Amino acid sequence: MTPKKILIPLHEDDVAPRFDLATEVLIVTEPGAEGLADRRMVVLPRASAEQLCHLISPGNGLT
Amino acid sequence: MEKETPPDTISNIGDSIRTPAGREFSNPARINNLFNIPIDFSDLLDEIAIGVLVLSLERKIIAINQTLETLTGFSQEEVSGLQCAQILRSNICLQDCPALGINENSSPKCIEGNLINQERQLIPIRITSAPLKDINGKITGFLETVEDIRLLRKLDETVSHAYNFNNIVGRSPQMEKIFQILPSLAQSDSSVLITGETGTGKDMVAETIHHASNRAKGPFAKINCGALPDTLLESELFGHRKGAFTGAVENKPGRIQLANNGTLYLTEIGDLPLALQVKLLTFLDDKEVFPLGSIKAVSADVRIIAATHRNLEQMVNEGRFRKDLLFRLNVIRLHLPPLRDRHGDIHLLLDHFLNTLSTQLGKKAPTLSRKALKILLTYHYPGNVRELKNIVEYALNISGGRQIKTKHLPSYLMEPGPFGATDTEQPPATPLAANSEQISFIRSGPDQNWSDIEKRMIMEALVKAGGRKNKAAVRLGWARSTLWRKMNQYGIR
User: B190 and B271, same structural domain?
Assistant: First the structure.
């Protein structure tokens, strides 16, 4: 079973109020059997709702 | 996103606004000393028909009114103490927060954008942000108003389908191109240079651009660069300090300063003296002006629209106009066609002026005799729309409300003469207005290959569709994906 991943759009040091305007996202992977959570920060080339949608859709290595 | 309890946030704003002792913060605060008895602060805000936000210095929400609750879908209890951007969810908050740039000397800032409410609706809004100061003039918070401008946008769409745009009338292809360009042009903040013969409506276009822009709520300051002597013009434009010259008995802000957050319209820019051209250039670069006699710069956020009937390129060659100033002003160029080239518009304008002027004069709109109409339609109008308007006004007054015949028209219209005694200093037919006109000719040009023609077709369709790709694809008879692919192929963005 693949571990759950959570994607949080960021704006500066906070959660981005608008997904379509976020240029950074934090991807956190649920702790596995070894008990370690994985955190990854992805910087998007530009704010785009479509790009973010594409990023989180299955088959892009992130989900 | 951590919700903070703001027990003393209200008192941060100033002594005049306090929470009543022993009450929850989300409950109404009170304004003391304004009336004999304390009044309910939130009730006062709720009476206002536009959304209102009271923010702390850290831009955390202290209070919102009912209108904003309806607009955003959040209640006062939910939002107290939260960062305003998290509640408004507006693109303005993330890209150009108006409260960030406000200092003690700032005037209110007005910006247009959109927000996403709790129902996930994208709503166009206009935010005006102003500082809240204590009695010593120190900023203690911000007051923001949020206007829902959906209705205005709908009206704009309706207007753009008619044969006029903010009182500019025309249905000739040249004017239709201008009507299509104007809204997107207004939304940008770039400098605009309007060229065209006298009487073509440069002033009206400048005003229209201002009213259709995000600066519409700001001032529209107009100055005629050819109407004042050099020294007076400098003082008018840039302002002066008390004692800067004989007669300067008090500080006076210049038009640039007065146009802060708005638009400065410089008409007859070709008549601006060379010395002032340098000073204007400095302002365009630094966004700061030094009033006469002052060593302290004053910053001003102003959009510049310039207009002239002169040929600035020719003036640059003759050394009468600075090349660098021309380049800075010539970001967006709009050429207004002379009336003689606007086929079909003379009749439309005749009817328009007959109706509006007769209403103003309190008369019933008269008809035109066939002969008078023929004369008016074939005249060359060197004074363009202004001349046509004057002729109609003259005829209306002379005819006394009866049918307008040739004898009611100004006599010079019937005199044989060299029609077309137009201004020799014609600006070259340019760009935006002329582009699409050229398209139809380019299509049949033997030296054009299919790619060029297709590229032009896409551009033309996009312009006609006001930049909307869906509509452009329909116009071209293509699927949207085909249009995307072709646009990528030709590098059209």
Answer: yes
